[in-house]
Each structure stands twice: as structure tokens, then as C-alpha cells.
Design brief:
Glutaredoxin; 8% strand; alpha+beta; 69% helix; single chain; rod-shaped; 5 helices; 186 residues; four-stranded mixed beta sheet; 4 strands
């Protein structure tokens, strides 16, 4: 009888231990389930944050593109206005002077004056257009084709006029201004 009682007690203990262990296992599974839910929730938050970051980057790129467009438009407007101002100045100068622009171009060349410019530069194009067909007489150095010359001369902006004394004057100039700068008649 003692043996039977012992077996019953042992069996009962095993059953109790099994139940207790099963409870621990159930608790572990519940913790795992909760952790999985938290991980899924964290992953969703991370994905949402990433999507928000992408949207913000897209917005930033759009804003940067719009700023570039506005700046380009303003630069183009300024160039057009300066070109128009120079054309008006040249028109007024040509009305009061009897000497043609080709004489100015030839005078500039005779005084060793050089014009530095670049392809694609709107100011350079405007400066060249002021001389029209007489531009052929100007000593012109294209910095796009010969950048070393421009670097050696420290040309930092074009169009730039180099005078015989080595001084450089950058910017778009009217024919009248150029004539006054070097003492040529217009």
C-alpha cells in the first residue's frame, strides 16, 4: 500500500509538475505572441516613418527644383534687361556719333584689347551681338575652347575685357562705355 501511495504521489507530482511546466510554457508562448505583436507594430511604425521621410525628400526635391526655376527666370530677366539697357545706350550713342561700330572694333583691336567669353554665356552672346558683323575685328578668346588661357589670366567672370596694361574689366559693357574706357571714338 505504501508503494501504491508512493506511486500515486509520484504520479500526482508529475502531473502537477507537468501542469506547472505547461503553465510556464503557456506563459512563454503568450510572451512570444506579445513580442511578435510589438515587433510587427514596430515594423509598421518604421515603414510609416520611412514613407514620411520619402515624402519629405520628394517635397524637398520639388521645392529645390522650383527655387532653381525661379532663380533661372530671374537671371534671364536680368540679362534681358541689361542687354536692353545696353542696346538703348548704343542706339543713343550711334545717333550722336558718325563713326560706325566697325571703327570701334578696329580701334579696340589696335589697342590690343581682348574679349574673353564662353559658349552658352548669355552676357557674352549679348556683348558679341552689340558689335554685329563687326565682331570679326575683335580679339576674342573663347574660354570654353581654351580654358588654360583664361585660368592663366585669372578670368573669373565673362564677358571680360583685358586691356593693354593687363587689367581686366568683367561684365557686359555698352559700346559707348568701351569707347570711353580705351579712348576710341564712337
Amino acid at each position: 500500500m505504501k508503494k501504491i501511495t508512493l506511486f500515486i504521489l509520484i504520479g500526482f507530482s508529475v502531473v502537477l509538475l507537468g501542469c506547472k511546466n505547461q503553465g510556464i510554457v503557456n506563459e512563454d508562448w503568450n510572451l512570444i505572441d506579445n513580442n511578435e505583436e510589438e515587433l510587427v507594430s514596430d515594423e509598421l511604425e518604421i515603414l510609416e516613418d520611412y514613407e514620411n521621410i520619402e515624402e519629405n525628400n520628394d517635397s524637398t526635391e520639388i521645392i529645390e527644383e522650383k527655387i532653381e526655376e525661379v532663380v533661372e527666370e530671374q537671371v534671364e530677366e536680368q540679362v534681358e534687361k541689361q542687354v536692353e539697357d545696353v542696346k538703348i545706350s548704343n542706339t543713343q550713342a550711334s545717333k550722336t556719333n558718325t563713326v560706325k561700330e566697325d571703327n570701334l572694333a578696329k580701334c579696340l583691336t589696335s589697342k590690343w584689347i581682348k574679349l574673353y567669353g564662353m559658349a552658352g554665356c548669355p552676357y557674352c552672346k549679348a556683348q558679341i551681338e552689340l558689335f554685329g558683323d563687326d565682331f570679326q575685328y575683335i580679339n576674342y578668346i573663347n574660354c570654353s575652347e581654351d580654358p588654360n588661357v583664361c585660368v592663366e589670366k585669372w578670368i573669373s567672370g565673362v564677358p571680360a575685357w583685358e586691356f593693354i596694361d593687363g587689367s581686366i574689366k568683367s561684365g557686359l559693357h555698352s559700346l559707348e562705355d568701351l569707347a570711353d574706357l580705351v579712348g576710341c571714338n564712337l
